[in-house]
């Protein structure tokens, strides 16, 4: 039997892969999405423990805006995917916080709260902040021709107090920087807009809402999705990608291939002959705590807290297994829902070291995981009104979990610092979408899939 033929094969059923698949299937293309795991979602998926459906990756969707803001990225995306705003069932945040020693800044889905906080805590920086807002408004962060530029250098032109830039960078880097110590200016502008000028929201039933919505839309338009289908090779002849080989030995051919596996990972699948990028190093641990009592009942109403223990925000691979010097504390039941709240929960994210976790043997791995779980809970208890006796369920994943479920080298959540904005790999018919194309967050990932499908496959359809 000759191998199956497709117009496009998409590697990975994450948000970008599903969005690209929807866009192509809508125009009648014969599309196959291959996903190595048993469920779709990629970096933003879910798992089941003790009959609980628990989100992975998704703390909050960024880019939240009302449906009447037509030119916002979220609403433009929904039009491209032929979806309704209501389909996402989004619940906005209450408000969130950035906490540094002696000072905190609250922000919400309206920029006026952050403006007020800066005017109160950093009165001498208000003019600089306004200039930054004007800069962000005019800056074309999505240009496919942008090259790397240092955000820290750029921010020094706006502020005289070094503390404020550190506080602004903290949530933006945690939610999207593949670079250690700094952040690409285009990525900064994207994240600034998506978090501070638009905002956070959560699908009512978590990430499963988004995954099921995208999956249904793809299948309803004639797309084909194969789970537990691990791609081990991209077949290249005469510098042209012609198909893929699966772990089972099956070969499939296609006129074009879109890979969401990551830049370095895709180049390795294709033989590495044009490989010039470097893998990312930023990985994290995530702890999930289910609680018997909501933190709001104990006076904590913030949705997300970004904390840092010093005036300087150090964003880098941890020097120990986990760094507790900073972190992200997300309370899913503190989104502003008029409906019954989900089970009280706390999710804690910290920077970690893939290399150090990788060196542990099986026994050492589980022992360290148990020990660090206790340390992370102790740290969270020093910041929030968290009572250990209220914890009824715990789970934790490490950089090795990220590597296993995403295939990212070094368990790098945000992929390589070498972003390929135009999606071109150097191999004909092989294109990138997703994290290493350069758009960030769930909305950014879906926009990446749509943009790359439009640019490289649907040229005749505009």
Q: Main attributes?
A:
single chain, 462 residues, alpha/beta, seven-stranded mixed β-sheet, 13 helices
Helix/strand layout:
Elements: E1 5-11, H1 15-26, E2 31-34, E3 45-49, E4 52-56, H2 73-80, E5 90-92, E6 96-100, E7 103-107, H3 111-121, H4 126-138, H5 151-155, H6 163-174, H7 185-198, E8 201-203, H8 207-220, E9 224-226, E10 231-237, E11 240-246, E12 251-259, H9 263-269, E13 283-291, E14 304-308, E15 326-330, E16 345-352, H10 354-359, H11 362-383, E17 391-397, H12 399-406, E18 430-432, H13 441-456
Parallel strand pairs: 1-2, 1-12, 2-9, 6-14, 12-18
Antiparallel strand pairs: 3-4, 5-8, 6-7, 10-11, 11-12, 13-16, 13-17, 14-15, 15-16
Q: How many angstroms separate the termini?
A: 36 Å
The overall pLDDT average reads 93
Global morphology: globular
Number of strands: 18
Oligomer: single chain
- Helical fraction equals 25-40%
What class, by secondary structure content? Answer: alpha/beta
Q: What's the tally of helices? A: 13
Low-confidence parts, pLDDT < 50 over ≥5 residues?
A: none
* Major sheet details: 7 strands, mixed
| Cα-atom radius of gyration | 22 Å
β-sheet strand percentage: 15-25%
Structure characterization notes:
By secondary structure, the protein is of the alpha/beta class. It contains 13 helices and 18 strands. It has helices at 15-26, 73-80, 111-121, 126-138, 151-155, 163-174, 185-198, 207-220, 263-269, 354-359, 362-383, 399-406, 441-456; strands spanning 5-11, 31-34, 45-49, 52-56, 90-92, 96-100, 103-107, 201-203, 224-226, 231-237, 240-246, 251-259, 283-291, 304-308, 326-330, 345-352, 391-397, 430-432. The strands form 4 sheets. Strands 1, 2, 9, 10, 11, 12 and 18 form a 7-stranded mixed β-sheet that branches. Helix 1 runs parallel beside helix 8 (207-220) and helix 1 (15-26) packs parallel to helix 13 (441-456).
